[in-house]
């Protein structure tokens, strides 16, 4: 399962929410063996009492996953 990045190199899409598989599409070229990252798009503050700091390292990192 890919890690979250605030500047991901793939996104997930499906045309049918009942589809049992997800597909990852590259947003830019990824080297063979390179890490795939996607934006989890969690809503920061949506889980009371739960904080997850983001360590993606992007210059524009939001700082928190949750
Ligand atoms: C689905 S798992 C990610 C993949 C998992 N680490 C693995 O090795 O298969 C999701 C969890 O990984 C951690 N994680 C993923 N991306 C992260 C990031 N950018 N910064 C901090 N933790 C992250 C968080 O704890 C998050 O709840």
TrEMBL record:
<keyword id="KW-0808">Transferase</keyword>
<dbReference type="GO" id="GO:0032259">
    <property type="term" value="P:methylation"/>
</dbReference>
<dbReference type="Pfam" id="PF00856">
    <property type="entry name" value="SET"/>
</dbReference>
<dbReference type="InterPro" id="IPR051516">
    <property type="entry name" value="SETDB_methyltransferase"/>
</dbReference>
<dbReference type="GO" id="GO:0070828">
    <property type="term" value="P:heterochromatin organization"/>
</dbReference>
<keyword id="KW-0539">Nucleus</keyword>
<dbReference type="GO" id="GO:0010629">
    <property type="term" value="P:negative regulation of gene expression"/>
</dbReference>
<dbReference type="GO" id="GO:0005634">
    <property type="term" value="C:nucleus"/>
</dbReference>
<feature type="domain" description="SET">
    <location>
        <begin position="1"/>
        <end position="41"/>
    </location>
</feature>
<dbReference type="GO" id="GO:0046974">
    <property type="term" value="F:histone H3K9 methyltransferase activity"/>
</dbReference>
<feature type="domain" description="Post-SET">
    <location>
        <begin position="50"/>
        <end position="66"/>
    </location>
</feature>
<dbReference type="InterPro" id="IPR046341">
    <property type="entry name" value="SET_dom_sf"/>
</dbReference>
<keyword id="KW-0949">S-adenosyl-L-methionine</keyword>
<protein>
    <submittedName>
        <fullName>(African queen) hypothetical protein</fullName>
    </submittedName>
</protein>
<dbReference type="InterPro" id="IPR001214">
    <property type="entry name" value="SET_dom"/>
</dbReference>
<keyword id="KW-0489">Methyltransferase</keyword>
<dbReference type="InterPro" id="IPR003616">
    <property type="entry name" value="Post-SET_dom"/>
</dbReference>
């Amino acid at each position: 399962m890919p890690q979250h990045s605030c500047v991901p190199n793939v996104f997930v899409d499906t045309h049918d929410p009942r589809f049992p598989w997800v597909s990852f599409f590259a947003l830019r070229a990824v080297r063979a063996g390179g890490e795939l990252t996607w934006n989890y798009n969690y809503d920061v503050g949506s889980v009371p009492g739960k904080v997850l700091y983001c360590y993606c390292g992007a210059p524009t990192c939001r700082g928190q996953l949750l």
